[in-house]
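Follow-up to my post from last week.
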Amino acid sequence: MFDTALSAADLVFLAKGAGMTILVTAISVAIGTLLGILFGVIRVQLGATLSLPLTFFLDIFRSVPLLIQLVLANAFMGMVLRLQISGFTVACGVLSLYTAAYCAEIVRGGIDAVPATTRRAARSLGMSWMQDMRYIVAPLATRIALPSWIGLALGVMKDSALVYVVQVTELLKSTQILITRLQEPLFLLLICGAFYFLISFPLARFGGYLEKRWSHD
Amino acid sequence: MIKIQNVHKSFGPLKVLKGIDLTVEKGEVVTVIGGSGSGKSTLLTCINGLEPIDTGRILVDGTEVHARTTDLNRLRQNIGIVFQQWNAFPHLTVLENVTLAPRKVLGIGKAEAEAIAEKQLRHVGLGEKLSTFPSRLSGGQQQRMAIARALAMSPDYMLFDEVTSALDPQLVGEVLETLKMLAEEGMTMICVTHEMAFARDVSDRVAYFHKGIMAEIGAPEQIFGDPQHPETRAFLASVR
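User reply:
Got it. Predicted complex:
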């Protein structure tokens, strides 16, 4: 059909890049979500005024471009703190906080969407704050927050392409290396896009499946 | 016995309760009537400690509700409350709605909790709906489920806060029948209601609240037949 210099070994090289993308995303989304839940609950419990310092801190991660965060964090660790930290660790650390900042907002919105009257009914049955959180608020807020959270996870997956600036060779960087060598940019980008799609698709479908399972109407 | 002594309560500058005194004996059914904003619903949420009070005391079986040392979670196990909005837990089936608190709060095993829940749900006429989700129930059924959910904790007291106010007129009857049944079984109840016929039929005593004050309390025959306070008279004339 058409000629390409792409070899099987190159495809393995791309797959390794995709593996790195998945690894960085999985670690960052996992840590970021746990932190996000913690920050979100703290924000709801403390109220807007008392949680202002936390909100301000998280806003920094939401408003400064990720590329700048990565470069500055890397420079800070190496040049200021003189720590021997791998680019991979810096990438996961920054992306985790970036995820946490957005996730905290999603969690806060989810908790706020659980009607106060429903929570009052739970407390009236003798449930403690923790029991109310665990058996009523958590399941209901999760259902509300899930679509936004899936969107966040997919976004972080694509944003993880930027971690090449701290010398992590993920999917897009791998593709660029091949483009430089093979000089077939459009074909390689097509394959790269297909890889991204293959990573995203199951997550999006999984979200759809959960949404369907949780609706009783 | 529920003892309410000189209770005052405000929301900001708004004084909602201005010195309420009321004692409800075991087995007694007291209904509270009055216009909106008279403080009657607030009183119920003060009795189970959902709302703090400014001054005065509320004692439930000798335990002071608003004392610092009172374990409210424990106290509330003994005081069921059902609200105007039925507040089903939408992610749980009817049976799970009712078993949740007995299992998690009282630590009762699954099988036993389900037996208790089934008994209560049959009692309120929902025996066929155990595995249904609340969104598939009518308002009247959801409200009866809320009643079964409170009863499954085997409370000594039940508080009802305008439980029929949010229901379609044709669904009010089934919920009032459930309340009547409980009253006949000897449950100690305080019912805030706008259903005058119900108040007349089931109450041992009827209290009329007006602007944060209990203007009048007495037997239903007296309150409805020969009201003493001019405000009671005006109110009853307006709702007839």
